[in-house]
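Rather than argue in generalities, we reproduce a single protein record, letters for residues, whole numbers for local backbone shapes, just as it appears below:
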Amino acid sequence: VSRLNLGGRHRPVPAQASTAAAEAQVRPGTAIAGLETFPDIARAVKPGVVNINTSKVVRMPRGRSPFLGDDSLDQFFGPVPEGNPRERRQTRTSLGSGFVIDEKGYILTNRHVVEGADQIDVTFPDGKRFEAKVVGLDARTDVALVKIEPTAALTPVPLGDSDKAEVGEWVMAVGNPFGLPGGGNSVTVGVVSFVGRDMRLEDPRRGTSIEMIQTDAAINPGNSGGPLINTRGEVIGINTMIVTGGAQ
């Protein structure tokens, strides 16, 4: 999960664990996770978390496929009707998630979800769909801002302060993994496993790392761009990447 400095302007600093016995007590304003905490948060943020579907037309060499071998595209797709006789056009689609941050229609998601797309469609839990345009991209943090033109009032998801994230606190990841049918988003719950994990995202211009929030809340393909939410119902990060290996 990408660590975003949503509540301040300075560079994020990993939160330090309390050691004093007095600080171990519940501090004023600290949210306590109870039996109804996560259902309440899920209901509150549901209208503001969206599914994002993108499409892009790519050009491929005619007659060659890395999966099926030479001349396989001719066999399955037929002759090219127009354009360069040595090229074939194919539409590629991808999916992700995002969340509303402004009533005017601004939505945060991951850069890798929308970058280079010819068309971006945003679908709300109630089934309403809007075409979106990219407002800004940041390769280093893998964050994108897109905008729709809403026809009714939107429900922004409150932004929190990732600088205050602490190891062991409960968090909720919301999104649409694998584009599962039936509409709506899935919710998974876990804890903050580590704060300030030094990771390098895809940024060919800089190749610099960024501090991340690591969580054991389940995150799958399609969750990219969705919010990571604390027990106050505030977004403290964007679900960005999965680290796979011999263990989960």
Summary: Residues 2 and 58 are 29 Å apart (CA to CA). The mean pLDDT is 77.
